[in-house]
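At this stage, I wrote out one protein's amino acid sequence and its backbone structure tokens, and that material follows here:
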Amino acid sequence: MPSVTRTVRDFSLYAALYLQAQGIRTQADNVQIISGAQQGIDIVAKALLNLRPGG
């Protein structure tokens, strides 16, 4: 049975390849696998807060 880490890494690679086929330049390292909407909102909010000057 594959480990969860390996499975997530494989899915990240698959997602990156799919996005590349759609014309989006990305790599598997740039794909974030999340478990739900609230986790996604939290990650995006934290990223946006880090973009503000002095953040």
